[in-house]
Amino acid sequence: MSQTLAEPIARLIEEFGKLPGVGPKTAQRLTFYLLRQPAEEAQLLAQAIVDVKEQIILCGVCFNLSATDPCQFCAAAGRDHAQICVVEEPLDILAIDRTGTFKGVYHVLHGSFSPMEGVLEDDLRIRELVERVRQGAVEEVILATNATVEGEATANLVRLRLRPLGVRVTRLAQGLPIGSDLEYADDYTLTRALEGRREY
Ligand SMILES: [Zn+2]
Questions:
Q1: Distance from the alpha carbon of residue 105 to the mean position of ligand 1, in angstroms
Q2: Partners of residue 170 on adjacent β-strands
Q3: DSSP secondary structure of 78-93
Q4: Distance 69 CA to ligand 1 centre (A)
Q5: Which residues of the chain fall below pLDDT 50?
Q6: What is the model's pLDDT at position 190?
């Protein structure tokens, strides 16, 4: 970082630079953009960041990010609570729900099984899913983990844990590009993958 920059400017550039997908150049551009904006604009951004950290919690049922507990999906009477779609990250819910194909509820694992990277079974919300299935009138669990090596390993692990319960377990159909994250799949591909899901 250039020493000719005032300390607060250098600090904001450094903070922006920690964000995913933001390189040094973009961090500088964002910082100087904000410097040109009225103080109220910067205040709105700062407040939005504080609010999201203070007000967003995990749904106690599905572990989705939410301002309420239970979340909008778990609380909805119009959704099919006998069908649970299991995803790796909250963003995946956005992708699937955007298609309008799925009317059930969700379960967020918060990651994928990856011992090489230190993510073990207990780091994921698998036990909570098993407990949900054990308690409720769940008829089908759809494994919608990513089409990656880790996503496949995760689906396999969840299936193993659910097997003793005898619940129907399905997996999204092939068609999602191999090695891809669900959140980047287009609506058409996702809809086909959901409709073509198979026993797993
Ligand atoms: Zn929920």
A1: 8
A2: 142, 199
A3: TSEEEEEEEESSHHHH
A4: 7
A5: none
A6: 87
Tens-digit pLDDT profile for residues 35-74: 999 999 999 999 999 999 999 999 999 999 999 999 999 9
How remote is the CA of residue 183 from the centroid of ligand 1, in Å? 19
Question: What pTM was computed for the model?
Answer: 0.83
Do residues 197 and 142 touch, judged by C-beta distance below 8 A?
A: yes
Query: Separation of 35 CA from ligand 1 center, angstroms?
Result: 39
Give me ligand 1 centre to Cα 107, in Å.
7
Pairing of strands 80-87, 104-108: parallel
Report how far ligand 1's centroid is from the alpha carbon of 168 (Å): 21
**Residue type for position 158:** V
pLDDT for 181: 79
Residue the block writes with tokens 């203070």: 54
Question: For the chain, what percentages of helix, strand and coil (3-state, to nearest 5) are there?
Answer: 50, 15, 35
Give residue 78 CA to ligand 1 midpoint distance, Å. Answer: 14
Cα of 10 to ligand 1 centre, how many Å? Answer: 40
Per-residue burial over 64-73, b if 16 or more Cβ lie within 10 Å, else e, is: bbbeeeebeb
